[in-house]
Amino acid sequence: xxxxxxxxxxxxxxxxxxxxxxxxxxxxxxxxxxxxxxxxxxxxxxxxxxxxxxxxxxxxxxxxxxxxxxxxxxxxxxxxxxxxxxxxxxxxxxxxxxxxxxxxxxxxxxxxxxxxxxxxxxxxxxxxxxxxxxxxxxxxxxxxxxxxxxxxxxxxxxxxxxxxxxxxxxxxxxxxxxxxxxxxxxxxxxxxxxxxxxxxxxxxxxxxxxxxxxxxxxxxxxxxxxxxxxxxxxxxxxxxxxxxxxxxxxxxxxxxxxxxxxxxxxxxxxxxxxxxxxxxxxxxxxxxxxxxxxxxxxxxxxxxxxxxxxxxxxxxxxxxxxx
Length: 323
Prior knowledge:
A seven-stranded parallel sheet has the order 3-2-1-4-5-6-7, sandwiched between helices. By secondary structure, the chain is of the alpha/beta class. The protein has ten helices and twelve strands. It has two domains: 8-149 and 302-322, Rossmann fold (3-Layer(aba) Sandwich); 165-298, Rossmann fold (3-Layer(aba) Sandwich). It has helices at 22-36, 70-79, 94-102, 177-192, 212-217, 227-235, 249-255, 270-281, 285-298, 303-322; strands at residues 8-13, 42-45, 60-63, 82-88, 106-110, 121-123, 138-139, 165-169, 195-199, 220-223, 239-241, 261-263. Strand 11 (239-241), helix 7 (249-255) and strand 12 (261-263) form a beta-alpha-beta unit. This is UDP-2,4-diacetamido-2,4, 6-trideoxy-beta-L-altropyranose hydrolase. InterPro entries: Glyco_trans_28_C. Keywords: Hydrolase.
């Protein structure tokens, strides 16, 4: 840890079939950015089986054993010399956040929801900065999207005249929509000679292989409305977004206005709407090229470094000055 810093940073996140993998993926990217800037963080989780490979090289991992309470968490954070907690919970415990802040530890939440909690800073993960936000400091927009450094500085995507390779990935959550999508692609494969890769949720607990090689290889991605949308934009992959959870609706609604692709929401005649979208997009290289350029212009993959630097250079010193 950099001795000039006023205290250590801890990061708290879980993953799994019920909550997906986005929380641990973006937090592992932030952990790597902290480490690169000279501060090795703690990474606290209740689901160690869903941590990405190599995280222990950039962070000290602590696995929770037992119920998480304000007293247990603040006790451990204090004993570890923690000055800042970055929490990325699916559901935020307002009382826990209040207990951490009351102990003198700055608390930052990642994501779009606070569930009534009042953190010192909220880092939203969305493709468009908010026109207005809660009455707390906010970092927002594509410049602060937390992505693995593999997504930084990628070359412009080459666009095939005819799309042949389709990637389907709806995250770590199992959904019957995968079967519907597969059925649509089976019908189209004969007419268009498609090569289809479907990333299914793992049968066993664990983090799947990194998605970036598949994103770069594909011509079209059929993706859910989570973190993978940000990764696709950084690689310049034209997308058809299929939001599968309520918290994905905001980002899914941003895809078409930003020119990144199309959004096909589940519902009536889903298979027909998806089929029509693919039929239009597969032969249209000009349209897919515009989508690719829009994505790479929007997301440069350096958000984790920006956020880590902001926390180290501004948030931590400001918190120390208030002690």
